[in-house]
Specification:
Distance between the termini: 58 Å
Strand order of the largest sheet: 4-3-5-6
Number of strands: 6
Shape: globular
Largest sheet: 4 strands, parallel
Order of helices and strands: HHHEEEHEHEHEH
């Protein structure tokens, strides 16, 4: 921090950089922290420092954990022959919250995007291809976007010659969704993936 910068404004500016927090929300969070620094701010600062020092990327799947390999990769109750490929760690955490997957994961670190200049070399694709030689199924749990579909197609072409079964998440009508409010792409995907 520069010597002439107000510490409160600096705190607000840093909080405002967090996802989901704009300047107004950051200001409210800073005020809440500053009103009770002993029980709110200092423990948060300790937790941030501790996490920064302890958490690292898993060398197997790219998850973030205090262990390497991570606790998911080393869990003996996990199905090691089932790999769920996700775009980012937040997707892995969402699937874990849902208790929806009992296998392992592989975090790509993004999706292919010609516009953004993200090619296969920028993603964790080569390690996935090596891991897949030991797998029986690879689930492509990528976003329902053009980039996600492009990445899934690219990965399926690379994985299928190795004899591994490649599957994708079902897409379509959400529970409680009314057909007349869904977009055309969602409806088309739902009809195509009917069972």
């Amino acid at each position: 921090m520069r010597p002439n910068v107000d510490p409160v404004e600096h705190l607000i500016a840093l909080l405002a950089k967090l996802p989901g927090l704009g300047r107004r929300s950051a200001r409210r969070a800073a005020l809440r922290l500053l009103m009770d620094p002993e029980t709110r701010m200092l423990p948060l600062a300790d937790a941030l420092r501790s996490a920064a020092e302890a958490v690292k990327k898993c060398r197997v799947c790219n998850n973030l954990d205090s262990r390497d390999p991570c606790s998911i990769c080393t869990d003996p109750d996990r199905d090691q022959g089932l790999i769920c490929v996700v775009e980012g760690v937040s997707d892995l955490w969402a699937l874990e919250r849902a208790h929806a997957h009992q296998g392992t994961y592989h975090v790509l670190g993004g999706t292919l995007s010609a516009l953004a200049g993200t090619g296969p070399e920028e993603l964790s694709i080569a390690p996935l291809l090596r891991r897949a030689t030991e797998a029986r199924e690879v689930i492509l749990a990528l976003p329902a976007t053009v980039e996600g579909a492009t990445t899934a197609h690219y990965l399926a072409e690379r994985l299928e010659p190795g004899g591994v079964t490649v599957t994708r998440l079902a897409q379509g009508v959400p529970i409680g969704g009314a057909l007349d409010v869904l977009d055309d792409g969602t409806l088309a995907a739902a009809l195509k993936a009917r069972r």
